[in-house]
Amino acid sequence: MFRTTKRIIQWCGEYKKRLYLGFVCAFFATWFGAAPTMVAAYTLGKAIDSARQGLPFDKNLIGLSFAAIVILVLLRYFFSYWRAKLQESIGYEIAAKQRIKIGDILKRVSLGYFQENSAGDILSTVTTELSSLEYQGMRIINEVVNGYINVVAIILCLGFFSIPAALVAAGGVALSLLFLHGVSVQSEKNAPVNEKAVEEMSGATIEYVRGLPIVKSFGQEGASIASMKKACNDSKNINIKIEKGFTPFNCLHLFSLKLASVGLVLVTAYMTYNGQMELPIMLMFCMFSFTIFGSVEAVNDSAHVLGVIDSAMDKLEKVEQATYIDQNGTDITLAAYDIEFNHVSFGYDSREILHDVSFKIPQNTTTAVVGRSGSGKSTLCNLIAKFYDVNAGTVKIGGRNVKDFTCDSLLRNISMVFQNVYLFHDTVKNNIKFGNPNATDEEIIIAAKKARCHDFILSLPDGYDTMVGEGGSSLSGGEKQRISIARAILKDSPIVILDEATASIDPENEHLIQEAISELTHGKTIITIAHRLATIQNADKILVVDDGKIAQQGTHRELIEQEGVYKRFIEIREKAEGWNIDKELVTSVCFLVPISF
Ligand SMILES: Nc1ncnc2c1ncn2[C@@H]1O[C@H](COP(=O)(O)OP(=O)(O)OP(=O)(O)O)[C@@H](O)[C@H]1O
């Protein structure tokens, strides 16, 4: 328990001073909270004493007691206010900074990190784990530290009046600590189980929400809802089991403190009876005895979540210790933008995907990367952007190994347009501005016009200020793609990596996208995963990827003369595009038939 408390104090870092001052305030607040009862009890004792001795009661004492109680209550609220002011926002302030820090860390890790750590895992670290720290951390620390400081002070105070009373209180607290240790052990044991259940529930929910379109289109619940239901049930059962495990320790902890309170009454009553203690003092302790351990009772609640907090901190430390892919990188400014792969081998896991790949892409040329699905085209592009580290060989841009760059300085030079565009839940304007946060509104509009999306943006309800659904869900595939091209135009980087849209985009959108791409790629070094024959044939260089190797490279003219993968690929594409054209003709004819009649 004290180890976790120490960890939370360390976690507070630069806020420690405020935390310690808060402890001082909490200490005074507790004592000023207890003092009115003691004053009242003492005054009552004096009144009884006077009555017993037949002496007139000193009326000034009532006035003095009343004034003292009012002042003590005010002081209690003064210190409570300052404790809250100093301590309560610390958790939120640190958690906000830590979330931003984790965001930065995730930006700098290899994409392989996200395979080893599931989305549910990362999500629960940033939300649930950090939330438990920000909400509970300060409360726990206040209860544990303040609780035990108070107990020590109470025992010392009791010792001042009566050593036996102090010993009874100390015995009760020691016994309660024993049972509290049981609560902490249970909490530490249960936290990972509970956490795993929460992770599984988050993962299953993400999976379910992502798969909803498929679930709906197939008109059935699917496996995802079954695993979500199972995860929810598991979580419920685990929580019930955990609570049952805590119950005996909770009861014994509270029982030991109540026993100490009763013991205190008995000891002080006995001492008063024997004339070893004055009646007012005895009454003061009797009234105080059942609230005296209140601060230690509260520690019980904290002990329940100590394990959760401990394991949340373990997970945060794990994320913070993630290895950056640009650990040894420096900020490099490039003078040239040619790209070179030199005997590169790479695998996402133990399976090697690219085998001894070598090629050169001269600056300001267009290179089409072609090959069967799964041959390794996207993998190749991912390595240019250093999303992953190569297993062997080197990838160089402008003669510099990509390993030597920081991610920021490397990606400053590269724009990527993916087939599956992700737009943020923000305005259209801010989604485009993502390419260049310093861009003015005029520059954003110019980029949007070049990307052929200005007109459709103006037709949206709030124009450029229209909110885009998460992931871009409120826009069509072609619209999203053009916005992502506008974003890349605004970034204006010298290297552009494009994953060309496939036949799934309709002809009109494809035409607009092609126009947008021409604006984007003008005078740059282009690497395009090409599907359209026109792009492939017009490229300065074609890289034919087959089973993770560069099977052929050259221009269209050179390659079409050779028997090999490329020739077969082109024949298949010609058939596919021919079929597409026929299909469009058929569709148009069918569409026209009713009109002509
Ligand atoms: N993140 C990943 N983890 C493990 N294996 C992966 C990962 N991404 C791709 N692969 C595997 O690497 C191989 C090459 O994939 P890649 O996406 O580079 O192919 P591609 O040629 O771009 O395919 P497509 O044209 O279908 O997009 C495939 O066998 C794929 O299963």
UniProtKB/TrEMBL annotation:
PROSITE patterns: ABC_TM1F (PS50929), ABC_TRANSPORTER_1 (PS00211), ABC_TRANSPORTER_2 (PS50893)
GO molecular function terms noted in the UniProt entry: ABC-type transporter activity; ATP binding; ATP hydrolysis activity; ATPase-coupled lipid transmembrane transporter activity
Any one cellular-component term (Gene Ontology): plasma membrane
Domain ABC transporter: 339-572
Positions of the ABC transmembrane type-1 domain: 26-296
Localization in the cell: Cell membrane
Annotated transmembrane regions: 20-41, 61-79, 148-180
InterPro entries the record matches: AAA+_ATPase, ABC1_TM_dom, ABC1_TM_sf, ABC_transporter-like_ATP-bd, ABC_transporter-like_CS, P-loop_NTPase, Type_1_exporter
Pfam (any one): ABC_tran
Alphabetical list of SMART domains matching this protein: AAA
Top-level lineage group: Bacteria
Record keywords: ATP-binding, Membrane, Nucleotide-binding, Transmembrane, Transmembrane helix, Transport
Annotated protein name in UniProt: ATP-binding cassette, subfamily B
Naturally occurring in which organism (per UniProt): Hespellia stercorisuis DSM 15480
